[in-house]
Amino acid sequence: QVQLVESGGGLVQAGGFLRLSCAASGRTFNNYAMGWFRQAPGKEREFVAAISWTGRYTFYAASVKDGFTTSRDSAKNTVQQQMDSLKPEDTAVYYCAGDPKTDLSGSYYCAEAREYDYWGQGTQVTGSS
């Protein structure tokens, strides 16, 4: 059974930091582009960040690009998201996702949720004011 499991969420004061991790099991995601999305109460799910399967290419939503950093560890089959300078508006459930499309150049990534086939259950991040 293919699974993505997020961890590392929690409650943090504004300006604080959290580090999310996404662990894959059931298959290797090392040749998958991976993404992070979030959904705040009463809002639609939105794109946060994406990383190519090589890890060399990343792309961020404008609202997080100055504070969030996404990386991956192929040896551990995990993806991480470092979130610095958290704000109350960053409060949401954060999901990691796997996109099985790949390319030989290793530059492919995607910001569209519909392109991702595998999703985790999410982890709650709350930034308090």
Helix/strand structural class: mainly beta
Gap between N and C termini, in Å? 40 Å
Mean pLDDT score, rounded? 94
Biggest β-sheet description: 7 strands, mixed
**Shape by Cα distribution:** globular
User: What are the segments in which pLDDT stays under 50 over at least 5 consecutive residues?
Assistant: none
Commentary on this structure:
By secondary structure, this protein is an all-beta fold. Helix content is 0%, strand content 47%. It contains no helices and eleven strands. The strands form two sheets. Strands 2, 4, 5, 6, 9, 10 and 11 form a seven-stranded mixed sheet that branches. A four-stranded antiparallel sheet has the order 1-3-8-7, with no helix packed on it. A hairpin with a 6-residue loop joins strand 5 and strand 6. It is globular.
Concise synopsis of the structure shown:
With 129 residues, the protein is mostly beta strands. 0% of the residues lie in helices and 47% in strands. It has strands spanning 3-7, 10-13, 18-25, 33-39, 46-51, 58-60, 68-73, 78-83, 92-99, 118-119, 123-128.
What attributes characterize this protein structure?
seven-stranded mixed sheet; 129 residues; four-stranded antiparallel sheet; mainly beta
Summarize the helices and strands and which ones pair or pack.
Layout: E1 3-7, E2 10-13, E3 18-25, E4 33-39, E5 46-51, E6 58-60, E7 68-73, E8 78-83, E9 92-99, E10 118-119, E11 123-128
Parallel strand pairs: 2-11
Antiparallel strand pairs: 1-3, 3-8, 4-5, 4-9, 5-6, 7-8, 9-10, 9-11
